[in-house]
UniProtKB/TrEMBL annotation:
Keywords: Cytoplasm, Metal-binding, NAD, Transferase, Zinc. Its cofactor is Zn(2+). It catalyses: N(6)-acetyl-L-lysyl-[protein] + NAD(+) + H2O = 2''-O-acetyl-ADP-D-ribose + nicotinamide + L-lysyl-[protein]. Residues 32-316 form the Deacetylase sirtuin-type domain. Belongs to the sirtuin family. Class II subfamily. The keyword Amino-acid biosynthesis does not apply. This is NAD-dependent protein deacetylase. It is found in: Cytoplasm. It comes from the Bacteria. Binds 1 zinc ion per subunit. It is an enzyme of class 2 (transferase). It comes from Arthrobacter vasquezii. The active site is at residue 150.
Amino acid sequence: MTSSPLPHASSLPGFGTTGFVRGEPAAASSLTASQLTSLRGVADLLAHLRLTVLTGAGLSTDSGIPDYRGPNSVPRNPMTYQQFVGDDALRRRYWARNHIGWHHLRRAHPNDGHRALVRMEQRGLLTGLITQNVDRLHSSAGSTKVVDLHGTYDRVVCLSCRTLFSRQDIAGLLERLNPGYLERTGNAGDVAPDADADVDDTSDFMVAPCPVCGGMLKPDFVYFGENVPKDRVDRAYAMVDDAGALLVAGSSLTVMSGLRFVRHAAKQAKPVVIINRGATRGDDFASLKLELGVSESLAYLADALPGATTEEVGPARR
Ligand SMILES: [Zn+2]
């Protein structure tokens, strides 16, 4: 996504009451007056606090990855772990759809929201990012303090010997086992955030065994019915413990794996801000809830938030 030319921020009316030394951020020009008022409220609440940001599928929709729980999306029933390991036909179908779908994730690019979070990290505003997305777009944008809560699409794990493989290497294996499948199936009509492509002809697809032990391979992300590894959860809790507030961006918090961090922050009496189109399961815990686009909101906040007091940002200029 390219950013359109914007008028100089200081030409915008109505600024100067919030006490920030900076001018109104450039992102403000794409926002309506009431959206700006809401975002200024968020900036005031979060001023001088270090943040943990929890992101979900709503952040990646501007990168062309649909959110299957968003207000306009078609409901899906993602496969459970028990179905994956227990049913050969379902596992074959899963791998066939993933074989198409992962290419789509690989071609996706970070958007303004991902880039805004990189700027926040560089300004010292973040204790870290917890993402429910498996698309790795935070890391490709340049964020370094990321907990990939639900794993990543670009790795595959053997359920027997636990060897990890790159998804690229397994793609080569699958292509040799299923010559011409990609070409025959063509472009997927729809790809979910977990690389599940909308493909129906999967009955003759050959699943690859583990190249090391012959065991069962699984994309290395957390399925429904599966627990997030404990060390990963602990790292995410530690980020929230170190933060002064929690900002949720683009998640409906439908699954407990994300909602628990909202509860954790609220229990510590830390402000919780939720930016998401549509209701979330965390709304009752939120100090502020904004029904706004995630990318433009984060772009605004990355510039509008004053520096955190607990960490100096850059060397002092004299
Ligand atoms: Zn193995």
